[in-house]
Write the C-alpha cells for this entry.
Amino acid sequence: MFDRLIKLIGRDSLEKIQSKKILLIGVGGVGSSALEALVRNGFNNITIIDFDTIDISNLNRQLITNNDNIGSSKAKEACLRAKSINPSINIQGIEKRLENDSLDELLSNNYDYIIDACDDIKVKYALIEKNLKYNSKLITCLGTAKKIDPTKLEITTLDKTINDPLARILRKMTKDNKINQKSVKVVSSRELPKDIEFLGTASFVPNYAGILCVNYIFKDILGVK
C-alpha cells in the first residue's frame, strides 16, 4: 500500500518510519486527523489514549466519526479506522482519562514521538514538564477553536506563539517553572480568534493542525528541515 510513498522517500526511509513508536494523546478533531496521517504515511506502531465517546457534535471535524458510531469509544473507533486502512498495523487504544499522576507510567514506555492533541491544559503542561526526563520528542497542538484559516497554522516553538490563548497560559506556566520555551515544539495558529462566546470550530483548522503534527515527525525522521 505504500508504493507511492516509497517512490517519494525510498524504502529505507519508510522502514525508519515504520520502526518508530508513536503515542497519540486525544483523537478528536486534531488527533483523528493526525491518526489518519500517521496510518497513511507508514507509521506502524501507534498507541492512542482517549477516554471520551463520540457525540453528534463531533461529526463536523473528527475523521473517526459517522452517524453509525455515535456513543462509541473514540479510542476503539480510532483503532478500527486505522485497521480498515492498514490491517497489519500495530495499534493499541487505551480508554482512559489521562491524569497527571498516571503520566510517568505512560511516558516510561519509551515512545519515540508523542503528539499531544488533548484539550486539557493541565495535562498539556504536565506532558511538557515530565517529558524533560524522557527521550521522546513531543509536539504539542495548541488552540484551534474560534479560527477558520488553516494557512495561519505553523510548526514553531512555544516562545514564538501569538494570538493563541492556550499558548499564553502555557507560556506563563513554563516561565513560572523555569522551563525553556524554545525547547517546546508546538503547532499554533497566528490567526486572531473570533470574538464569540462558545468554542465554535470548523474542520479546516483542527484537521490541518493534526497533519502538521505528523509532518513535524515525518520530516524529523527523514532529517528534512
The chain has a mean pLDDT of 96. The radius of gyration is 17 Å. The longest helix spans residues 204-222.
